[in-house]
Amino acid sequence: MSVSVLPTTRGTAPDATSAGVPVQLAGLRRKFGATTALDGLDLDIAPGEMIALLGPSGCGKTTALRIIAGFESADSGSLTMDGEDVTHLPAHRRDIGMVFQSYSLFPNMTAAQNIGYGMRVRKAPAAERAARAGELLELVGLPGRAGDYPHQLSGGQQQRVALARALAVRPRVLLLDEPLSALDAKVRLTLREEIRRIQLELGITTVFVTHDQEEALSVADRVAVMHGGRLEQCAAPAELYERPATPFVAEFVGTMNRLPGTVRDGGVVELFGRRLPVHGDVPAAGTEVDVLLRPEGLAVRPGAGTDGGADTAGAPATVRVATFLGATTRLQLTCDDGTGVKADLPSWEAGGLVPGARCVLLPHDNPVLVAARGAR
Fold first, then answer.
1. What confidence score (pLDDT) does residue 15 get?
2. Sorting pLDDT into bands at 50, 70 and 90, what band is 308?
3. Nearest CA to 307 among 359, 251, 261, 243?
4. Strand 222-227 vs strand 230-235: parallel, antiparallel, or unpaired?
């Protein structure tokens, strides 16, 4: 789908391959009374990149977004866009497009009028506003709905109009503040795919705030995980999942087992009788640690224990619950020492592993992250 480009007050609009601008957050700090919302946030966003800010409530992600938008001021630190220091620039001069969770459409305006509102404020001619609204309604998948009022549109359609309105003024940066959380699951899935398609087509630098890890991992180029006003890790989704930098990231993103292990010489950790490589800091040999291991990082061998062969590794366990999830089955097991474990297997491998079945757990030979015993 092609999008024609109209003249703007900044001159000829860039095409889809050059629309994005770099954004740098350097040492941003913000306190609200005794509460520290941001504690020295540093983040570089590449031109045309979609970054998801992910974290629990109160981690600072929305404060960071509002500072980028100009709705909040940082106590210290700086914000630059395309090399320009905009730290103290008012919101209306930043060329930011923002989509809110609550849509915030004007109920007495049609879809086209809502989309063209920002252009009207900028004194764009009526014909130009109408043409731009038509282009954007086509882009967001709502052709022919220009004359509809918000009450005539579904929640997902209203959010598409809100997105089109944010794009109408050709912003340098697009900000999305949990825009899908008010929608049902099926609409949310469809619309997040549409947002990603549009973002890629326009090449616009985008910051997406969400507390939904699946949403963040599925649409973003990189995910910035925040905790306590700080950036824990910013990485591509696969790296974030497979090589988390901290125990917090490991347990916040996806499902994680904490299993008792012991550090051995050579920077390895012993778990269930096997020695595994460790990524990240390795404590001294002999240290008792928690090994952080994904459910898919375990093999489950049916049987009561060792078969008398040379390989005596593995932890005898009993299946407590088997949950069929389609292509995979999640097992909840209890080792003979009382340790609770989750393991994900292809469903075709899990047929005989019913509640009460005996088995042996074996970790796959992949690098793992370790944490101090009991530390969170």
1. 39
2. very low
3. 359
4. antiparallel
Q: Return all residues near 126 (Cβ < 8 A) that are at least 6 apart.
A: none
- Using only the alpha carbons of the chain, give its radius of gyration: 25
- DSSP SS3 for 244: coil
pLDDT tier for residue 165 given thresholds of 50, 70 and 90: very high
Q: Do 19 and 200 contact (CB within 8 A), yes or no? A: no
Dist. CA 72–CA 64, nearest whole Å: 9
Q: What is the pLDDT of residues 339-361, one digit of tens each?
A: 999 999 999 999 889 999 999 99
What distances in angstroms separate CA 68 from CA 21, 56, 194, 202, 306, one per listed residue? 13, 20, 24, 20, 58
Cα 267–272–275 angle (5° rounding)? 25
Bridge pairing between strands 50-54 and 205-210: parallel
> If you ran DSSP here, which 8-state letter would residue 150 be given?
G
101 DSSP 8-state letter: T
* Tokens representing residue 146 in the block: 């220009």
Provide the b/e sequence for 10-40 (b: ≥16 CB within 10 Å). Answer: eeeebeeeebbbbbebbebebeeeeebbbbe
pTM: 0.86
Specify the amino acid at residue 15: D
The pLDDT assigned to 19 comes to: 67
For residue 13, pLDDT over 90 is answered with: no
CB 209 within 8 A of CB 53: yes
Q: What is the pLDDT of residue 184?
A: 86
DSSP state of 8: B
| CA distances (Å), origin 296, targets 301, 320, 327, 362, 363 | 14, 17, 13, 11, 9
Predicted pLDDT at 316: 96
